């Protein structure tokens, strides 16, 4: 089954052709980062306008690279939630137009389910059930993936997402948006024990996360130093911050693995590209004897290949949208459309 998938939930316009949920025939991503960088973060209205401009060209390229035409496809898939509403609407309306004109079924896909599905591409033998940590710019979830379309959140952040905390701490240290990847790189040169940072816990909800206090601690350290005219080592502060975030993520992952009894662990989302997180997960899973799956680096961030992968399983479970499909800025991962 050949699916053309469209992704426009944030600042990447993407299209891909994916066969049977695993074989990526093409994957094209047009990033808007250079423009949003000027403002230190994503400007929603600019994102929507750029999606409108890019979506036809990106889709044409995806079809060309897959050496296929609309006539040879079996379905159109689109990320319809969650994300920036104006950005999502561009993809949803474009996909509706394609489905209407070709007569193909339209498959709505949840963005976080798609992130998880990036692992079915990287690890073709991977099958649910498993436990998954989804760490992106907007979400930090521990998910019980009982089946491809049967997912339950066991824990989540109460405030900032892990990626958001990385970006805000990086910004405070003067790094360009999105700072997570820069902070990760600089942290490789730093001493992770140089600063003692808080490891916040959520009372009464041991699988939930809280990152805003940690981010504030970094900002306070920087302000105090600048008031005294001192210069902190950005490498050391980055390394200490990265370690604290990864410690918090790992602690809850271990707790959730023990609680559920799963022996298979999967990570997904933009922050799954973090080098310390990947190393620590490899080490922990080796020690515990757990099977570990991580997306290849070019599938960690937003792309449409992962949308095409998840769409295959949504289609098999009967998730076909009507022409009244709407975009949704917020939607739990448990929801069927
Ligand atoms: O999944 P994603 O591409 O978009 C959302 O769905 O939000 O995640 C983007 C997030 C950004 O916050 C970005 O800074 C973060 O992933 N990120 C990283 C790294 N690479 C991307 N954070 C830490 N270390 C990285 N290497
Ligand atoms: Zn994403």
Could you explain how this protein is built, in words?
The structure is a single chain. By secondary structure, the chain is an alpha/beta fold. The protein contains 10 helices and 10 strands. The strands form 2 sheets. It has a 5-stranded mixed beta sheet, sandwiched between helices. Strands 8-7-6-9-10 form a 5-stranded mixed beta sheet, sandwiched between helices. Helix 5 runs parallel beside helix 7. It is globular and about 65 Å long. Zinc ion binds next to helix 4.
List the helices and strands and how they pair.
Blueprint: E1 2-7, E2 12-19, E3 23-31, H1 33-37, H2 44-65, E4 75-81, H3 85-102, E5 106-110, H4 111-122, E6 130-135, E7 140-147, E8 150-156, H5 162-172, H6 180-187, H7 212-227, H8 234-260, E9 264-268, H9 275-288, E10 291-293, H10 305-316
Parallel strand pairs: 1-4, 4-5, 6-9, 9-10
Antiparallel strand pairs: 1-2, 2-3, 6-7, 7-8
Helix pairs in contact: 2-3, 4-10, 5-7, 5-8, 6-8, 8-9
The chain binds 5'-O-[(R)-(carboxyoxy)(hydroxy)phosphoryl]adenosine and zinc ion.
Give a brief rundown of this model.
The chain is an alpha/beta fold.
Question: How many beta-strand elements?
Answer: 10
Proportion of helical residues? 40-55%
Number of domains: 2
CATH class type of the largest domain: Alpha Beta
Overall SS class: alpha/beta
Which shape, going by the Cα principal axes? globular
**Total helical elements:** 10
Distinctive features:
10 helices; about 325 residues; alpha/beta; Nucleotidyltransferase, domain 5; 5-stranded mixed sheet; 2 domains; binds zinc ion; binds 5'-O-[(R)-(carboxyoxy)(hydroxy)phosphoryl]adenosine; about 45% helix
């Amino acid at each position: 089954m050949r699916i053309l998938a469209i992704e426009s939930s944030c600042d990447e316009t993407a299209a891909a052709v994916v066969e049977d949920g695993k074989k990526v025939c093409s994957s094209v991503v047009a990033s808007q980062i250079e423009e949003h960088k000027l403002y230190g973060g994503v400007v929603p209205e600019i994102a929507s306008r750029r999606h409108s401009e890019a979506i036809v060209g990106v889709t044409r390229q995806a079809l060309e690279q897959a050496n296929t035409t609309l006539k040879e496809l079996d379905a159109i898939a689109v990320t319809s939630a969650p994300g920036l509403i104006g950005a999502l609407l561009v993809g949803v309306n474009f996909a509706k137009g394609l489905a209407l004109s070709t007569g193909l079924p339209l498959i709505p896909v949840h963005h976080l389910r798609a992130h998880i599905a990036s692992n079915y591409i990287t690890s073709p033998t991977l099958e649910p059930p498993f436990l998954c940590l989804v760490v992106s710019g907007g979400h930090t979830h521990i998910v019980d993936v009982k089946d491809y379309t049967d997912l339950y959140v066991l824990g989540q952040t109460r405030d900032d997402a892990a990626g958001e905390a990385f970006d805000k701490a990086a910004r405070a240290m003067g790094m360009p948006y999105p700072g997570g990847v820069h902070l990760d790189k600089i942290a490789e040169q730093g001493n992770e024990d140089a600063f003692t940072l808080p490891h916040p816990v959520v009372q009464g909800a041991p699988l939930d996360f809280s990152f805003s206090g940690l981010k504030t601690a970094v900002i306070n350290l920087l302000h105090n130093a600048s008031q005294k005219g001192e210069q902190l080592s950005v490498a050391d502060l980055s390394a200490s911050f990265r370690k604290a975030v990864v410690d918090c993520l790992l602690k809850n992952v271990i707790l959730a693995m023990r609680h559920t009894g799963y022996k298979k662990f999967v990570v997904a989302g933009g922050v799954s590209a973090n080098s310390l997180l990947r190393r620590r997960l490899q080490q922990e899973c080796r020690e515990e004897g757990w099977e570990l799956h991580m997306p290849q680096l070019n599938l960690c961030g937003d792309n449409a290949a992962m949308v095409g992968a998840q769409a295959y399983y949504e289609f098999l479970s009967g998730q076909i949208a009507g022409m009244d499909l709407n975009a949704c800025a917020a939607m739990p991962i448990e929801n069927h459309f």
